[in-house]
Write a structure and sequence with these properties.
With 185 residues, this protein is mainly α. The chain contains 9 helices and no strands. The chain has helices spanning 2-5, 8-28, 31-35, 43-61, 67-89, 97-120, 124-135, 144-160, 164-168. The protein is globular. InterPro entries: Ubiq_cyt_c_chap, Ubiqinol_cyt_c_chaperone_CPB3, Ubq_cyt-c_CBP3-rel.
Length: 185
């Protein structure tokens, strides 16, 4: 057991997971989301953006096997560990964390289903509506949801053009949230 814990493979996997997760977090924290597209700069708003970016990579890797499947699982595990850690930082006690984690997991998987359906159908209005429902549920109208949907489609394209081997080596590039301009990070 101890041999596998300290093996070179586990250290390499940890480094890859850390590198990819750092890219996911950096993409989710792009200032344009909060300054131009009116995503709430709150814990829930940041959760929405982190969830969206985690979903986008999971969606890219969904039909892959082997190392890519392992990378995808390691990242989803890291995501939920990060959410758990964040809840504890907010002062949620040990007794309350599991209940909140279940709720956040349901939120994450519910969103991924609606986002995947819209992306797979290339339905920008449906994606914008799903984003509005999830990111700004209190807003009667959120015109920036169309711009965020455009960003999502640009990111899907950017991720599709990245080699799986590169992603599995810890290299990942999301599109830039540059208020609708057409350049990639």
């Amino acid at each position: 057991m101890f041999k596998s814990l300290f093996s070179g493979k586990n250290r390499a996997n940890r480094a890859i997971t850390d590198a990819l997760y750092a890219e996911i977090v950096a993409a989710a924290r792009q200032p344009a989301f909060y300054s131009h597209w009116q995503v709430p700069d709150s814990p829930l708003g940041r959760f929405e953006m982190l969830s969206l970016h985690m979903f986008l990579l999971q969606h890219r890797l969904r039909d892959e096997n082997g190392a890519a499947r392992e990378v995808a699982q390691n990242l989803i595990d890291e995501f939920f560990l990060d959410v758990d850690h964040s809840l504890r930082e907010f002062g949620i006690g040990d007794a309350g964390v599991p209940k909140r984690m279940k709720k956040l997991a349901r939120m994450f998987y519910g969103r991924t289903a609606s986002y995947a359906d819209a992306i797979d159908a290339s339905d920008a209005p449906a994606l914008a509506a799903a984003l509005a429902r999830n990111v700004r549920p209190e807003a009667k109208d959120w015109p920036e949801s169309a711009e965020l949907a455009d960003y999502v489609f640009r990111t899907v394209h950017a991720l599709a053009n990245q080699r799986t081997d590169d992603i599995c080596s810890g290299r990942l590039n999301y599109a830039e949230a540059n208020a609708g301009q057409e350049s990639d990070a």
